[in-house]
Amino acid sequence: NTGFPCNQDLIHCTHRHEYPANLNIAIKNSCNPYFYQVMRAAVTRRQTGNPSEDLHRGLGQWQKLVKSFGLGDKLGVDMGQEKGGFIPSPEFYDKRYNKQVASRPSRNKSARFRGWNYKTIYSLSIGQGEIGLTGLQTANVMATIANRGFYYTPHFVRGIGKGGQLPAEFRQRHYTGVDTTLFKYVIPGMCEVVDGRGGTARLASLRDFGIAVAGKTGTVQNSHGYDHSTFAAFAPANDPKIAIAVFIENGGFGGSAAAPAAGLMMEKYLRGKVARYHARMEDWIKYGNLTVHLH
Ligand SMILES: [Zn+2]
Q: How far is CA 167 from the centre of its chain?
């Protein structure tokens, strides 16, 4: 429950919003400066007396936790050609930046600088930079949060087991390395994203049907054109039945394109149909140009 100012000198914040006094408010408003500062505090903790070594160690710990959510490696689904994505290690940055450091090992260990610092890697704090995720991994992270801290290896299935009995190998839980009490703070923040006042993904709301959706938008910067629009979610928040990730290339802001697409799919899955008054939204998604209509 630590607040960090929405300090735009550190990193741009897309949204104008209240003071991010805690994780809940920061998630709701997708506050980049908040996550910049949270990660900085986490990976630059004093551990060795040498800031460069501290960061090296801190990023290694960060990588391990992030990978415990099934990221950075293949999940092991049943189809070939699965991609593993990428979660960078401290050694990755050593290789890229510290050539001269490696060739001239300093005798004075406390003065040793590895050639990169937090400014080099801060994009990781908002899920950008060198991070690579597959759509399936993103949906699986949603399932992991929905389960409050574990996931099952995802499978493509036509049916499940004999007489509903699942073989043991499919029941193996993969637990994350993070404190499970954290999910108690993350999930209400994700519900605010969808149903809170000024939340960034209100078009994914299923509140009219008494269903709470927990989600998170993403706007992926794209140097080649319009930003990519992403939204990942699960529902119902307190009794999850579906986890989903939607990625719309060049769709712009995450809340305007991917969120309504995900909302409609969850509505169809959970209710078996889409409400008539959502037909217009379906048309927008089928025939395009969401950003123009919904801004
Ligand atoms: Zn902010």
A: 30
| CA of 116 relative to ligand 1 center, distance in Å | 26
Helices and strands counted in the chain (H then E):
11, 5
Two tokens, residue 182: 């954290």
Among the listed residues 259, 232, 212, 205, the one whose alpha carbon sits nearest the alpha carbon of residue 143: 232
For residue 154, the SS3 value is coil
CA 199 / ligand 1 centre spacing (Å): 13
Alpha carbon 282 to chain centroid, angstroms: 25
- Give per-residue pLDDT as tens, 196-251: 988 889 999 999 999 999 999 987 777 777 888 899 999 999 999 999 999 988 87
In the chain, domain spans: 23-133, 178-294
Compute, in angstroms, the gap from residue 251 CA to the centroid of ligand 1: 22
Check if the beta carbon of residue 269 is closer than 8 Å to that of residue 263: no
Q: How far is the CA of 7 from the centre of ligand 1 (A)?
A: 7
Output the CA 10–ligand 1 centroid distance in Å.
Answer: 11
SS3 242: strand
Query: Six-digit token pair at 91?
Result: 């050694």
The one-letter amino acid code at 108 reads N
Q: Contact 153/172 with Cβ under 8 angstroms?
A: yes
CATH superfamily name and code, 178-294: DD-peptidase/beta-lactamase superfamily (3.40.710.10)
